[in-house]
Amino acid sequence: MTDSFEKQLKGEAALLGISLSPEQMEQFFLYGRLLVEWNQKMNLTAITEEGEIIRKHFVDSISLVKALPGQLGEGELRLMDVGTGAGFPGIPLKILFPHWKVDLLDSLNKRIRFLEEVSGQLGLKGIRAFHGRAEDYGKNPQFRQGYDLCVSRAVANLSSLSEYCLPFVKTGGFFISYKSGEVEEELKAAKRAVSILGGEIERVEKFSLPGGDDLRSLVVIRKVKATPGKYPRKAGLPSKEPLR
Protein backbone atom coordinates (compact mmCIF):
# COMPACT_ATOMS: atom_id res chain seq x y z
CA MET A 1 0.00 0.00 0.00
CA THR A 2 1.31 3.46 -0.85
CA ASP A 3 1.71 6.07 1.88
CA SER A 4 -0.46 8.51 -0.07
CA PHE A 5 -3.27 5.96 -0.36
CA GLU A 6 -3.17 5.16 3.36
CA LYS A 7 -3.05 8.79 4.43
CA GLN A 8 -5.93 9.92 2.21
CA LEU A 9 -8.30 7.01 2.84
CA LYS A 10 -7.67 6.97 6.59
CA GLY A 11 -8.11 10.75 6.82
CA GLU A 12 -11.25 11.01 4.71
CA ALA A 13 -12.87 8.00 6.40
CA ALA A 14 -12.15 9.64 9.77
CA LEU A 15 -14.15 12.69 8.66
CA LEU A 16 -17.13 10.32 8.41
CA GLY A 17 -16.39 8.97 11.88
CA ILE A 18 -15.03 5.72 10.41
CA SER A 19 -11.90 3.97 11.65
CA LEU A 20 -10.58 1.34 9.22
CA SER A 21 -8.50 -1.64 10.33
CA PRO A 22 -5.20 -2.49 8.58
CA GLU A 23 -6.99 -5.41 6.88
CA GLN A 24 -9.74 -3.13 5.57
CA MET A 25 -7.16 -0.65 4.31
CA GLU A 26 -5.40 -3.44 2.41
CA GLN A 27 -8.71 -4.61 0.94
CA PHE A 28 -9.49 -1.11 -0.35
CA PHE A 29 -5.99 -0.79 -1.82
CA LEU A 30 -6.26 -4.13 -3.64
CA TYR A 31 -9.75 -3.21 -4.86
CA GLY A 32 -8.41 0.01 -6.34
CA ARG A 33 -5.55 -1.83 -8.04
CA LEU A 34 -7.91 -4.42 -9.55
CA LEU A 35 -10.26 -1.67 -10.72
CA VAL A 36 -7.47 0.06 -12.66
CA GLU A 37 -6.14 -3.25 -14.08
CA TRP A 38 -9.53 -4.50 -15.28
CA ASN A 39 -10.48 -1.06 -16.56
CA GLN A 40 -7.82 -1.47 -19.24
CA LYS A 41 -9.77 -4.47 -20.57
CA MET A 42 -13.33 -3.24 -20.09
CA ASN A 43 -15.09 0.04 -19.39
CA LEU A 44 -15.67 0.01 -15.63
CA THR A 45 -15.04 3.62 -14.64
CA ALA A 46 -13.86 6.95 -16.00
CA ILE A 47 -12.18 7.60 -12.65
CA THR A 48 -8.71 6.02 -12.59
CA GLU A 49 -6.49 8.40 -10.57
CA GLU A 50 -5.75 7.07 -7.08
CA GLY A 51 -6.96 10.09 -5.14
CA GLU A 52 -10.17 10.31 -7.17
CA ILE A 53 -10.88 6.58 -6.74
CA ILE A 54 -10.54 7.00 -2.99
CA ARG A 55 -12.77 10.08 -2.78
CA LYS A 56 -15.37 9.54 -5.51
CA HIS A 57 -15.75 5.77 -5.24
CA PHE A 58 -14.62 4.49 -1.84
CA VAL A 59 -15.43 7.42 0.48
CA ASP A 60 -18.59 8.27 -1.45
CA SER A 61 -19.78 4.66 -1.08
CA ILE A 62 -19.16 4.39 2.68
CA SER A 63 -20.72 7.83 3.25
CA LEU A 64 -23.91 5.80 3.68
CA VAL A 65 -23.06 5.82 7.41
CA LYS A 66 -24.33 9.41 7.49
CA ALA A 67 -27.82 8.21 6.61
CA LEU A 68 -28.04 4.72 8.16
CA PRO A 69 -31.27 4.66 10.18
CA GLY A 70 -31.06 3.62 13.83
CA GLN A 71 -28.87 0.64 14.58
CA LEU A 72 -28.87 -0.83 11.07
CA GLY A 73 -25.07 -0.86 10.87
CA GLU A 74 -24.57 -2.95 13.99
CA GLY A 75 -26.47 -6.19 13.34
CA GLU A 76 -26.47 -8.70 10.51
CA LEU A 77 -28.25 -7.14 7.58
CA ARG A 78 -29.24 -8.16 4.05
CA LEU A 79 -28.33 -5.55 1.46
CA MET A 80 -29.11 -5.38 -2.26
CA ASP A 81 -27.10 -3.04 -4.50
CA VAL A 82 -29.02 -2.38 -7.73
CA GLY A 83 -27.04 -1.34 -10.81
CA THR A 84 -23.79 -1.89 -8.94
CA GLY A 85 -21.52 -1.40 -11.97
CA ALA A 86 -17.94 -1.86 -10.74
CA GLY A 87 -19.24 -2.68 -7.24
CA PHE A 88 -20.22 0.71 -5.86
CA PRO A 89 -21.44 1.13 -3.21
CA GLY A 90 -21.91 -2.58 -2.38
CA ILE A 91 -18.31 -3.79 -2.13
CA PRO A 92 -16.99 -0.84 -0.07
CA LEU A 93 -19.96 -1.34 2.29
CA LYS A 94 -19.14 -5.06 2.54
CA ILE A 95 -15.53 -4.19 3.43
CA LEU A 96 -16.77 -1.74 6.06
CA PHE A 97 -19.45 -4.08 7.46
CA PRO A 98 -18.10 -7.62 6.89
CA HIS A 99 -21.01 -9.15 8.84
CA TRP A 100 -23.57 -7.87 6.30
CA LYS A 101 -24.88 -10.22 3.62
CA VAL A 102 -24.52 -8.33 0.35
CA ASP A 103 -26.00 -9.05 -3.08
CA LEU A 104 -24.85 -7.12 -6.15
CA LEU A 105 -27.05 -6.84 -9.24
CA ASP A 106 -25.96 -5.61 -12.66
CA SER A 107 -27.26 -6.02 -16.19
CA LEU A 108 -23.82 -6.54 -17.80
CA ASN A 109 -22.32 -10.00 -17.39
CA LYS A 110 -18.72 -8.86 -17.91
CA ARG A 111 -19.03 -6.72 -14.80
CA ILE A 112 -20.20 -9.75 -12.83
CA ARG A 113 -16.92 -11.51 -13.64
CA PHE A 114 -15.03 -8.51 -12.28
CA LEU A 115 -17.14 -8.42 -9.11
CA GLU A 116 -16.56 -12.11 -8.48
CA GLU A 117 -12.82 -11.65 -9.01
CA VAL A 118 -12.71 -8.74 -6.55
CA SER A 119 -14.73 -10.64 -3.93
CA GLY A 120 -12.40 -13.63 -4.21
CA GLN A 121 -9.17 -11.60 -4.17
CA LEU A 122 -10.32 -9.59 -1.15
CA GLY A 123 -11.44 -12.70 0.72
CA LEU A 124 -14.99 -11.42 1.15
CA LYS A 125 -17.57 -13.91 2.43
CA GLY A 126 -21.34 -13.58 2.29
CA ILE A 127 -21.39 -11.59 -0.95
CA ARG A 128 -22.97 -12.62 -4.27
CA ALA A 129 -23.10 -11.04 -7.72
CA PHE A 130 -26.06 -11.55 -10.06
CA HIS A 131 -26.43 -10.80 -13.76
CA GLY A 132 -29.87 -9.50 -14.69
CA ARG A 133 -32.37 -6.67 -14.64
CA ALA A 134 -33.97 -5.28 -11.51
CA GLU A 135 -37.41 -5.62 -13.14
CA ASP A 136 -36.96 -9.41 -13.32
CA TYR A 137 -35.21 -10.00 -9.99
CA GLY A 138 -37.72 -7.75 -8.21
CA LYS A 139 -40.49 -10.18 -9.21
CA ASN A 140 -38.55 -13.27 -8.10
CA PRO A 141 -39.84 -14.57 -4.71
CA GLN A 142 -36.25 -15.42 -3.67
CA PHE A 143 -35.35 -11.73 -3.77
CA ARG A 144 -38.61 -9.79 -3.52
CA GLN A 145 -39.18 -8.01 -0.20
CA GLY A 146 -36.35 -9.94 1.44
CA TYR A 147 -33.83 -7.17 2.15
CA ASP A 148 -33.36 -4.84 5.10
CA LEU A 149 -31.69 -2.29 2.87
CA CYS A 150 -31.45 -1.59 -0.86
CA VAL A 151 -28.98 0.97 -2.20
CA SER A 152 -28.19 2.38 -5.63
CA ARG A 153 -25.70 4.84 -7.07
CA ALA A 154 -27.15 4.28 -10.53
CA VAL A 155 -27.91 7.33 -12.64
CA ALA A 156 -31.68 7.45 -13.06
CA ASN A 157 -34.55 9.58 -11.79
CA LEU A 158 -35.84 8.79 -8.31
CA SER A 159 -39.23 7.57 -9.58
CA SER A 160 -37.58 4.92 -11.78
CA LEU A 161 -35.04 3.97 -9.10
CA SER A 162 -37.82 3.51 -6.56
CA GLU A 163 -39.60 1.09 -8.89
CA TYR A 164 -36.36 -0.83 -9.39
CA CYS A 165 -35.41 -0.89 -5.70
CA LEU A 166 -38.42 -0.78 -3.37
CA PRO A 167 -39.73 -4.23 -4.43
CA PHE A 168 -36.56 -5.75 -2.91
CA VAL A 169 -37.11 -4.14 0.50
CA LYS A 170 -39.04 -5.79 3.32
CA THR A 171 -41.65 -3.74 5.17
CA GLY A 172 -39.82 -1.68 7.78
CA GLY A 173 -36.62 -1.68 5.71
CA PHE A 174 -35.08 1.13 3.69
CA PHE A 175 -34.10 2.14 0.18
CA ILE A 176 -31.30 4.73 0.13
CA SER A 177 -30.53 6.47 -3.14
CA TYR A 178 -27.15 8.15 -3.71
CA LYS A 179 -27.62 11.43 -5.57
CA SER A 180 -25.36 14.25 -6.77
CA GLY A 181 -26.30 17.88 -6.33
CA GLU A 182 -29.70 19.27 -5.39
CA VAL A 183 -32.65 16.88 -5.33
CA GLU A 184 -35.67 18.99 -4.36
CA GLU A 185 -37.40 18.93 -7.77
CA GLU A 186 -36.70 15.23 -8.16
CA LEU A 187 -38.18 14.53 -4.72
CA LYS A 188 -41.37 16.38 -5.62
CA ALA A 189 -41.68 14.48 -8.90
CA ALA A 190 -41.10 11.10 -7.19
CA LYS A 191 -43.30 11.52 -4.10
CA ARG A 192 -46.40 9.87 -5.57
CA ALA A 193 -44.40 7.04 -7.18
CA VAL A 194 -42.68 6.28 -3.87
CA SER A 195 -46.06 6.12 -2.14
CA ILE A 196 -47.58 3.82 -4.80
CA LEU A 197 -44.62 1.46 -4.37
CA GLY A 198 -45.05 1.23 -0.60
CA GLY A 199 -42.44 3.76 0.44
CA GLU A 200 -42.27 7.03 2.31
CA ILE A 201 -39.50 9.62 1.89
CA GLU A 202 -38.16 9.97 5.41
CA ARG A 203 -35.31 12.46 5.02
CA VAL A 204 -32.42 13.64 2.87
CA GLU A 205 -28.86 13.75 4.18
CA LYS A 206 -26.82 16.40 2.36
CA PHE A 207 -23.04 16.76 2.52
CA SER A 208 -19.94 17.43 0.42
CA LEU A 209 -17.17 14.96 -0.21
CA PRO A 210 -13.92 15.77 1.63
CA GLY A 211 -11.57 18.12 -0.19
CA GLY A 212 -14.05 19.28 -2.78
CA ASP A 213 -17.32 20.97 -3.63
CA ASP A 214 -19.03 17.77 -4.77
CA LEU A 215 -22.49 18.05 -3.21
CA ARG A 216 -24.07 14.71 -2.35
CA SER A 217 -27.55 13.78 -1.18
CA LEU A 218 -28.59 10.49 0.38
CA VAL A 219 -32.35 10.06 -0.01
CA VAL A 220 -33.70 7.81 2.75
CA ILE A 221 -36.96 6.05 1.88
CA ARG A 222 -38.67 3.81 4.42
CA LYS A 223 -40.75 0.85 3.23
CA VAL A 224 -44.06 1.25 5.07
CA LYS A 225 -46.19 -1.33 3.22
CA ALA A 226 -45.81 -4.14 0.69
CA THR A 227 -45.19 -3.17 -2.93
CA PRO A 228 -48.24 -4.04 -5.09
CA GLY A 229 -47.68 -7.20 -7.12
CA LYS A 230 -47.78 -5.47 -10.52
CA TYR A 231 -44.54 -3.61 -9.73
CA PRO A 232 -41.90 -3.50 -11.01
CA ARG A 233 -43.39 -3.33 -14.48
CA LYS A 234 -41.82 -5.17 -17.41
CA ALA A 235 -38.25 -4.45 -18.47
CA GLY A 236 -37.67 -0.93 -19.75
CA LEU A 237 -40.94 0.64 -18.62
CA PRO A 238 -39.75 2.12 -15.28
CA SER A 239 -37.16 4.23 -17.12
CA LYS A 240 -39.22 5.00 -20.24
CA GLU A 241 -42.45 5.80 -18.38
CA PRO A 242 -41.64 6.72 -14.75
CA LEU A 243 -44.58 6.60 -12.35
CA ARG A 244 -46.01 10.06 -11.66
Tell me the structural class: alpha/beta
Here the CATH topology equals: Rossmann fold
- State the shape: globular
The CATH superfamily is identified as Vaccinia Virus protein VP39
Radius of gyration: 17 Å
Counted by DSSP, the helix tally is 9
CATH architecture heading: 3-Layer(aba) Sandwich
* Whole-number mean pLDDT: 93
Q: What would you note in describing this structure?
A:
The protein is of the alpha/beta class and 244 residues long. The protein is 39% helix and 22% strand. It has helices at 3-15, 22-39, 50-62, 90-96, 109-122, 134-137, 158-165, 184-196, 237-240; strands spanning 78-82, 101-106, 127-131, 147-152, 169-180, 199-208, 215-223. α1 (3-15) runs parallel beside α3, α2 runs antiparallel to α5 (109-122) and α7 runs parallel beside α8. The radius of gyration is 17 Å and the shape is globular. The model has no long low-confidence stretch (mean pLDDT 93).
